[in-house]
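To fix ideas at the outset, we first show an illustrative case, written as a sequence plus integers encoding its fold:
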Amino acid sequence: MIQRVARPIHLVVAWLYVIGLLVQVFLAGMGVFSGATAFATHRDFGYLLTALPVVLIVTALVGRFGRWHAIAATVMFVQFILQSVLIIGRESMPEIAALHPVNGFLILLIAVWLASDAWRVWQANREAAPTEPIAPESRSG
């Protein structure tokens, strides 16, 4: 029962995460072209997105999406933590801090893979699920 609940949650959260990451890239662009105050929105939205890989880890395990989904979600969570660490060094080590957008695009790449594969698994399970027998019509005699 809980697996049946976790599977659609995993699928929806995976795609919401991809959409959220695309919004995050847009917000970074707004920060570059609109001014430094727009970066606060980029930062705050990034902190909000950090929760989604945790949900993906749990739903991957409970929904039995396989080890790779749980590993990918864990890697993305660690990468999100790394994003904050990279920003801390922007004054003292700008060459290292410049990896922040590269890491962000790697997160997006993994998220797209995870969401696409979650869709594939979802479809495969729907096709493999046995159809419920149709109850015969009652005949009056």
